[in-house]
Structure formats: C-alpha cells, structure tokens
Amino acid sequence: SHSIEIWIIFLYFCFIFNLASCQIRYSIPEEMKKGSLIGNVAQDLGLDLKRLRSGRARILTGESPQYADLKTDKGILVVNERMDREQLCGDVTPCSLSFELILENPIELHRVTLEILDINDHTPSFKNKNLNLEISESATLGTPFDLESAEDPDVGHNSLQNYVLTANEHFVLKQQSNMDGSIFAEMILQKPLDREMNPHLSLKLIAVDGGTPQKSGTVHIEITVLDANDNAPVFNQSVYRATLIENAPIGTYITTVNASDADAGPYGMVTYYFSNLKGGLADLFNIDVASGKISVTGKIDFEKDRKYELRVAAKDQGGLNNGSKLIIDVMDVNDNAPVINVMSFSSPVSEDALTGTTIAVINVKDSDSEKNGKITCSIDSKLPFKIQSSLTNYYNLLSDVVFDRETTSEYNITITATDSGSPPLSSATTLRLVISDVNDNAPIFTRKSYSAHVVENNEPGVSIFTVSARDVDWNQNARVSYLLEDTQVSGSPASTHVSINSETGVLYAARSFDYEQIKALQLVVKAQDGGSPPLSSNVSVKILIQDQNDNAPQVLYPVQTGGSLVAEMVPRSADVGYLVTKVVAVDVDSGQNAWLSYKLQKATDRALFEVGLQNGEIRTIRQVTDKDAVKQRLTVIVEDNGQPSRSATVIVNVAVADSFPEVLSEFTDFTHDKEYNDNLTFYLVLALAVVSFLFITCLVVIISVKIYRWRQSRILYHSSLPVIPYYPPRYSDTLGTGTLQHVYNYEVCRTTDSRKSDCKVGNAGSQNVLIMDPSSTGTMQRIQSEKSILDEPDSPLELPIPLNAMERRTEPQRRIQAGARPRHARFETRLVV
Ligand SMILES: *[C@@H]1O[C@H](CO)[C@@H](O)[C@H](O)[C@H]1NC(C)=O
Ligand SMILES: *[C@@H]1O[C@H](CO)[C@@H](O)[C@H](O)[C@H]1NC(C)=O
Ligand SMILES: *[C@@H]1O[C@H](CO)[C@@H](O)[C@H](O)[C@H]1NC(C)=O
Ligand SMILES: *[C@@H]1O[C@H](CO)[C@@H](O)[C@H](O)[C@H]1NC(C)=O
Ligand SMILES: *[C@@H]1O[C@H](CO)[C@@H](O)[C@H](O)[C@H]1NC(C)=O
Q: Quick one: DSSP state of residue 410?
C-alpha cells in the first residue's frame, strides 16, 4: 500500500557563484502514486510562480524516463511515473535520481535530486516452492545441508534478515553471510535419521525481512531419508523349539523361523541359513533359504541324539546377520527291540542241581527310553524255570524244579524280552540247556521175576535164558552188568548150577540138570550199573527143570530078585475077579513120563488072569479049576507114557493051591529041579561071597561118607543106592483110578521105623507071599544104610510125607496089631532058601 508520505524536503543552498543554478534535493519513498507531491520546487528555489511560467520551467531528464513532473501552476513537483527503487537502483543505496529543472529567460538550471527511499514492498522469496532433499539415514552428525536462499530485493532493513526452520529434532539451522552480506542458511544434522522410523521429513524454511510489517517467504523442504543397511535381521523368537518324532520321513516339516529386517529393499531381504552346523547335522536338516522352513533330510535317531541345538542365522543382502537358536526335541519311537546278551550260561547242569540254581545270567538292553525301553523278561511258563531280575537290566535264570535227566534231558529255554512301547517290540533268545546225568536210577529188570524152563539132561554150557535190565541213566551210569547173587541152590552155591554172562545177561547151565534131583532153581540175579557209586537191583529167576523120560518104570512089587522065588497064592476056591496081587511100579519121572500102564505079556494060562491096565491089579478072570496048574508064571510089562516110552517087565509067580504044603511040594519041585539044583549050590556060595564083600565095602563106604559129611555138613544128597520109592495110592483099593496123582510122584517112601511096614504086601488071611531071596541080607543092610542117611536131621531130602499117605501106609499094620483080619491086610512072609 502506498501511503503518501511527505518527507522533509531538504532545501539545499543555491550556489552563490551561479545564481542561476541551485540544487535541491528531495527524498521520497518509492512507489508513490502518480501525481503524488514530491516537493514545492518554486518555493524551495525561491521562484515565484510567474517566473516559472515565464521561464517555461521544465524538467530535463535526458534519456531516462521522466519520473517527476513539474506542476508549474503550483510550482510543485509530482510523481509522474512509478518509481521502483529496486528497479532504479537495485542494491545501490542510496538511490537517487537526478534531473534538471530548466528555466528560460534567464536560463536558470537547477538540479533536482530525488532520493528514492526504500519501502518494504518485497517479500523474501525462494526460487522454488519445494526443496527435495535425499539424505541417507547413515549421514553423520554435523553434516551440513545447504538450503536454498531466499531473495528480497528490498534493501536495508527491508531486505532479508533471517531464516527460520520449522521445529524438528534432527536438524538445526545455521545461517551464514556471504561476502556481499547476504545471508544463507544450512541445516546441520544433529540427530541421526532413521528411515525405519521416519522415512520422510517435511520441513519449512521461512525467510523473513526486517520491514514493517515484516514479510516472509517459505520453502517446503521434503527430506527423503535414504535407507542404509543399519538393521540386521531380527528373529521373532530368540529360541525356537520344536519336537520331532524320530525316524520322521525325509521332508517332514519341523518349524519355520522368521526374521525380519527393518531395512528396505535388498537390505531388508532376509535369507536363512544354519550357522556353526556340526558335521553330521548338515545331512539331517535343511532350511529353506527364503522362507526359513526347516525340514528333515536325514535319519533322525533318538538313540543317537535326543536333542538337537541348531544355530539359525538370517542375513540381509547388505551382509548383516543375526542368529537364533533352534532346539529340536526328538521324541522317542519304539523302534528298537530289546537286545539280549547272555552274560553267563552254564550247560550242562547236573540233574541233581538244587532248585533255584542259577542257570544263566542275561543282560537285556533297549536303546529306547522310558516306556519304550522298559523291559520285561519272560520265559515259557511251562518250563520249570523262573526268571528273576537282579541288577538293573540283569536277569537271572533259575531252575524251579529238581531236574530229572531221564524225563527231560534238555530244555530249550526261550527268553523273551519285551518292551512297554506301543506296539511293543520283543526279541528272544534260546538257550539249550543240557542236563547231565547222575547215577540216580538203578537198573530195572524188564520183569518182576523170571521163570525159565530147561529140559533136564541138558548139555553143560547151554544157554538157558536171558535176563535183561534197563537203566535209564546215561552212558556209564546206564551200563548194566549182570551178576549172580551168591545164593544156595540145593545146598550148593548157585554158581555151580548156572553162570551168567555179565554183559549180555544170558544165563548158561553150568552143568547138566537132573529133574529127578532138582526140579527148580531159585536164583537171584543182580543188575548193576557202572555209576559211582553203582546202583543195583535184584530179580529172582526161577529155572524150572523139565522132565524127560529118562527113567524107566521101576517095579516095586513083586520084588524082583535074581534067585529068590516069590509066589502069590491063589486058592482054588477063588472066585472070578479074585485079586491075586498088584503089580506096583513107579516111575521117577513125572507127568506123562510117569503115567504107567500095565499089560500082560506072557502067561502060563492067558485065560486065567488079567492085569488092570491102569492099576496093575492081577485078577482071575475065570473060576480056578483043579485042572489048572499050581505054578502059574505071568510076565507083566509096565510102560510109561513118555515119548519114547520106557518099560519094565516083571515076572509074577502065582501058586494056585489051597494049602501051603501043596505049594511047597510044588515049588520044591521047582527048586529041586535037577539042573536048577546043581547051579543053585554054586550060586549060593557065590552069592554069599559077593554079599560078604559088598557088606564090607558098604561098611567102609558108609564110614567114609559119614566122615566126609560130618566135615562138609552141606552136601547134596547123592544116593547111589537103590531107592525104593513108594507109591501108596496104587496099592490101595480105595483109589481105583490107577492114575498116578502128581503129588505122589515126588514121594519116595522110606521106612524110618520099620522096613517091614514098607513095600511089603501080604494078605494076612488068604494070601501068603513066598519070597526066596538069596541076597536078603544085602538088601537089609542097604536099607539100613539108607535109613541112617535119612535119619540125619538136616538131610535136605527129608521130604515131608503127606499125612494121609502115612495113614494109609500104617493102616494095615494097625489092623494087624489089632488082630483083625481085613481082606487086604498084609503081612510078609519071607522065605529064604
Ligand atoms: C514373520 O513374522 C512377522 C511378524 O512376526 C510376520 O508379519 C511375517 O509374515 C512372518 N513371516 C513369515 C514368513 O511367516
Ligand atoms: C515367529 O514367526 C513364526 C513364523 O511366522 C510364527 O509362527 C511365530 O508365531 C512367530 N513368533 C512370534 C513370537 O511372533
Ligand atoms: C541380533 O538381534 C538382537 C535382538 O534382536 C540384538 O540384540 C543383537 O545385537 C543382534 N545381533 C547382531 C549380531 O546383530
Ligand atoms: C532244542 O533245539 C534243538 C535245536 O534247535 C533241537 O535239536 C532240539 O530237539 C530241541 N530240544 C527240545 C527239547 O525241544
Ligand atoms: C539183593 O539181594 C541181596 C541178597 O539176596 C540183598 O542183600 C540185597 O539187599 C538185595 N538188593 C536189593 C536192591 O534188593
């Protein structure tokens, strides 16, 4: 706004020397309006208005435009043209404008100088409205940044006086003067920039002048903070944790690490990698460079590593990096079966080992942990063993039974170790336990007792029979040898009868057996094993000797003598069926071999007599007549039933007569037979001599035998003397069967009290027996010696005589003693000639 101000007009003096020239000076502010009064020239020059008019006063400006105009009518100088001091003078001060006022008539020349005073008509101004700066955030403190200078054409006070920067914490303004006095401003960084916090700053720089009113100009400073790689990537967690199942397949995702970089662009582009990775781990894990995803690339084994600690690093493109930690806990999977180690194992074990003996010590390991590694050990419950845990992971296998090698000689013990995982894994090992033998079993014979048969008259050395014993022990303990126990058989050691092969158990006859002497052998065979100590067992062996038909029947009655004549008497009055006599024969054999049958072989008169086939009874089969000869001679043959059969013949003389004399005369005829008589005398003498000799011999023999026996109290009775067996039932009517009863086969009739009572048959009443026996004395003595043997109290052959047999035998005697005359009472008449 241009307010017109009247400045003081300086009236300068006129040059005295030149009356016509005076100099005046006016100061006026610039930019006055046209027509504005500059000064009263007339007055100041002391000219009146007429002079002006007359002098045609005017202003001379030369070439320059006429800024002032002279109003001659008023004598004032007014602004003719806008005067812009800045235009006229620029920076020059003071700014003055001179022109001449010329008057004619007389010429008068006056210089008028206009001093144009500055007014604040300009604001400071910047060339650009905006100032764009790019400053790196890494710029160092104190760095100056030039700012644009503002222009204010005004001068002096009105010119640019000051700069002001909007308040901010990063920059301070510093103003400096140029040589020409103008000022300019610069910003000094006083606080580091952080692109990440303030990527842009907007500031205003204001330039102010000193005028009144003050004027100002503004420029906007737009600061773009340039990125510097001042931020390292930062992981969002200082430690990452992940769990991973062992044996996870390749490619299994584990976790993702995440680092962010506050920087922009490449400086903010994060790549991931493992740092400080130990050798093996590089094969196990992979990290995705861009995404930070971590996955499995190898075999994860809990048993090798339960925990992995990995350093992860993130790097930006500017090379800054930072690290973090990844802890991977591996979770156990039951992937390991228990491993069984047999630490010690004793086999074989003796079968007498005590219950609870430790058989084996085993160690079981499972590399898995916790439940997966918790092991239970077991064995087949049927096996007689138990398993006990001793120390950790150690187990004892104990026997739970008393072993018996004979029932079970070995055990396959399968030990199973199972862990507690799910599913559980198990492993097994088999121990083969061998039970060693102890001699705890005696040999056992295949049978409780044995009986064998051997036919008499065997060859010595013939094998009879085999005993066999088994020993369930092993090897030497089962090696059976057979022994004959030292028992007595018939008064002599068993070994004299049989022998045994100690290895094979074959029994051999040591001699030839005679059934008639020994019917059975009772032996004890011992089987003994080879153990130490040896065990043994006994078995009784009964060897039955079987009869052979080796004995011919022996005729007991009628007694056969060489020269004596015995005749049965048959009264002529005898009826049909009259029992003349009975041929009594025995066979020392037994059974069929002793089953005798009687037949008439030859007879004087076949029609008169018959012989009972079974019982040997000779009976008449028709009425005896007077015509029948007194002398009757019957030849009876006795046969046994053996194969082949043996036989004996006996000649029975029968006298058919009513009286003794008759018989005698008849038989005297026999004896006084001429040639018979001649010989008889000779025979009698000879017989006498023989008998005497025999008697003496017998006496000597008997005495020697007595002495011998006295010394050897136990000796088998061997009789070389004729034994007169007695067979009671056969001569008794009451037993009419004619069959020899077995029990009597063994019976030998021996007279101990009276030889008369034995074997002599006579009919007290109606039957007389005539015996002519030249050797009767010998017979008597033989019987006596036999008696003496039999009298010996410990004679082994003192066989019991059944009571009924005894009774039968003595019955006739009693009857005789009682004087009764039963039909079958017998007595003996012995006629010795
Ligand atoms: C990393 O974490 C930040 C914040 O924690 C998130 O914004 C960004 O998406 C994450 N990056 C990845 C790859 O997950
Ligand atoms: C870190 O980043 C990962 C991946 O993006 C994310 O899963 C995780 O939650 C983040 N952790 C934190 C503490 O933000
Ligand atoms: C990594 O980052 C942490 C904080 O996130 C910081 O304290 C540490 O100094 C950084 N390390 C490096 C090497 O930059
Ligand atoms: C034990 O095992 C062995 C070999 O496998 C076999 O020969 C034997 O017969 C088995 N014994 C038992 C009692 O099963
Ligand atoms: C075997 O017999 C003998 C005598 O006969 C006897 O001493 C022994 O005790 C018996 N042994 C056994 C085992 O029966």
A: E
More confident residue, 716 or 833: 716
pLDDT at 653 over 60: yes
Ligand 3: centre distance to CA 231 (Å): 9
Instruction: Give the residue whose CA is nearest to atom 14 of ligand 1.
Output: 258
The half-sphere exposure of 18 on its side-chain side, counting CA atoms within 13 A, is 10
Question: CA–CA distance from 703 to each of 80, 706, 750, 804, 807 (Å)?
Answer: 219, 5, 21, 35, 34
| CA nearest neighbour of 762 among 580, 585, 578, 603 | 580
Q: What is the pLDDT of residues 712-727, one digit of tens each?
A: 765 444 444 444 444 4
State how far the alpha carbon of 215 is from the alpha carbons of 92, 376, 646, in Å. Answer: 21, 101, 188
Q: Is 524 in the pocket of ligand 5 (CB under 6 A)?
A: yes
Shortest-distance Cα residue to atom 4 of ligand 5: 485
Residue nearest to atom 7 of ligand 2 (CA): 256
Q: In this structure, are residues 585 and 596 in contact, taking their beta carbons and an 8 Å threshold?
A: yes
Helix (H, G, I), strand (E, B) or coil at 664: helix
Instruction: Report the predicted TM-score, pTM, of the whole model to 2 decimal places.
Output: 0.49
In sequence order, the 6+-apart residues with CB closer than 8 A to the CB of 17 are none
- The domains of the chain are located at 2-117, 130-226, 234-331, 339-436, 444-546, 743-832
- Look up residue 638 and give its two tokens: 């006795």
Q: Is there a contact between 427 and 337 (Cβ–Cβ < 8 Å)?
A: yes
Residue whose CA lies nearest to ligand 2 atom number 2: 258
Residue 550 Cα distances to 232, 505, 514, 518, 547, angstroms: 136, 30, 10, 14, 8
Q: Considering the domain delimited by 444-546, tell me its CATH architecture.
A: Sandwich (2.60)
- The atom of ligand 4 lying closest to the CA of 411 is 13
Provide the CATH number for the domain formed by 130-226 in this structure. Answer: 2.60.40.60
Distance CA 444, CA 503 (A): 15
**Pairing verdict, β 76-79 and 37-40:** antiparallel
